[in-house]
Amino acid sequence: MKKLRQTIHDRYRKNESNQCETVERAFTQEEFDKFMNVVTNPLHRACFIVMATLGLRVGELTALKGKDLDKEELIIDSTKGSYKARFRLPDAILRVIKATEEDDHLFPITQAQLRRVFSRYRTEVGLNRVYMRTAPCGQSKIRNKRYDLTLHSFRHYAIQKAYLLSKDPDLTRRLARHKHLETTLRYFRKNRKEDVENLLESMTNF
């Protein structure tokens, strides 16, 4: 059994070593709660809650204006692809978003400012883990340091939580505003080795 688990581990580690993508990941629930506990600024808190609930990219969030809020629906203009999505918002989100004039930003903060405050909160709660990122395939072996939790981790968190609650991949794809299901599935693959090992353990627990 131990040898079989090691074989699975080695196979996944080999596959991951051949990939040329980042290792950004979602917050765990414990990390998310710990992070949000130190965010007291109302604007910052509103930004993070909306990103973690709707899975917005930082550019989509900071681009939202009063005209994008149609009664109880939010119109999201995707930063990837030329399409818009409409979502009927729950009351908890509507209480966070303040009504403004059509041309006013719903969240008056720039991407750079939001990244800076996120970095400050991340340091405050001790979530500054880093990894070494290799340049994309075909390029020279340049490695640089990256944080594994970034603003995009709120999107990972939202998508993974949506799937855990719904168990519906296509519904999760619609929330993520992905054209292809394959794109959505990438948000779960970083945990596949652990999932396989845990499943194998439960199946052989005689």
Please state the structural category: mainly alpha
The share of residues in extended strands comes to 5-15%
| Helical residues, percent | 40-55%
Low-confidence regions:
11-22
Oligomer: single chain
> Number of helical segments?
10
Q: Any idea what the radius of gyration is? A: 19 Å
Number of strands: 5
Q: Give the biggest sheet.
A: 3 strands, antiparallel
- End-to-end Cα distance, whole Å, is 12 Å
Compute the average pLDDT. Answer: 77
Report on this model:
The protein has ten helices and five strands; from the N terminus they run H-H-H-H-E-E-E-H-H-E-E-H-H-H-H. The chain is mainly alpha-helical and 206 residues long. It starts with a helix and ends with a helix. The strands form two sheets. It has a three-stranded antiparallel β-sheet. It has a two-stranded antiparallel sheet with strand order 4-5. Helix content is 50%, strand content 11%.
